[in-house]
Amino acid sequence: MFLEAESPRVSCRDHGVTVAAVPWARHQSGHTHHFDAQVAWLATRTSKTAVTKLMRIAWRTVGAIITRVWAETAAAQDQFAGLTRIGIDEISYKRGQKYLTVVVDHDSGRLVWAAPGQDKATLNTFFDALGPERSAQITHVSADGAAWIAVVVAVRCPNAVRCADPFHVVKWATDALDEVRRGAWNDARKAARSNEARRGRGRPAKDTPPRPDSAQATALKNSRYALWKNPENLTEKQQVKLAWVVQTDPTPGRAYYLKEGLRVIFKLPHDEAIEALDKWVGWARRCRIPAFVKLQRSIVTHRPAILASIEHGLSNGRVESMNTKIRLITRIAFGFKSPEALIALAMLSLGGHRPVLPGRI
To answer: Which of 41, 105, 47 is nearest to 78 (CA)?
Structure first.
């Protein structure tokens, strides 16, 4: 069934000649309210191919429709109502260092705000939209150790407790450990080459057993996951590999125990964690491993936020979960003309106000 109606053109003093607004469609949209609603519902629940084939429209048209639908939805809803505990993070949405800054409500798990950019100006835009009165009501903010987030939060909501995400803090230690492993691997390779050069034997035959230095280099190269993973998650083979590394090379062994020591701190009660963190800093400061000496300086800088995370039991887990969902939406939204369409699709899907299929109660 088709319904046809004339849309008269009018001459506006401010906008010139334009099509007059009609009650069954958004102004200058080219589609009815019901059509837009059905496209938005499909876009949040089905694949790109299904939407375009079923509705017989281009994918960029889908982007324009969901942008309009979200703009109208956002105008009718208060996304910031009751916002007290938030998580802030950034996520890459396109090649070429293109990022979105996202804000998640810890209490409801909703995506409350997103915008293209990864800097202080972008985050200030969120607090401008939130307003000074509501910014003062923010009690907790979780984030990684990015300085641009910490600076803006300190200025815009100074009364909020800033919590460092445990996952990112432990990742700093894991990265330092991997730097130590790579250094030990390179040293073992150089030693093996030097020994071979001194012996003057050239390349060994296939049935010749590997030299000790060469075997150690190979073992260190293949020990990455044995050193990275939590002890309780190691396979039997990885446990053997870890034991071998710790026993044969003291530097990666100490680095591994430093990483594990920092991870265990986040499992302790707050009172015990204070003492344990101070002891860990002293240990890392004296360890004579450059990567961990450097790391302990960052830990000292972020010490209040780390202890606040332990005290309040707050992490960026919800934000990381949200980022995983946004990455999936990013793949679905590939081909949108602008990041605003991607943000609209993410907000419609994850903002707590998913479109309703028209004609259904």
So the answer is: 105
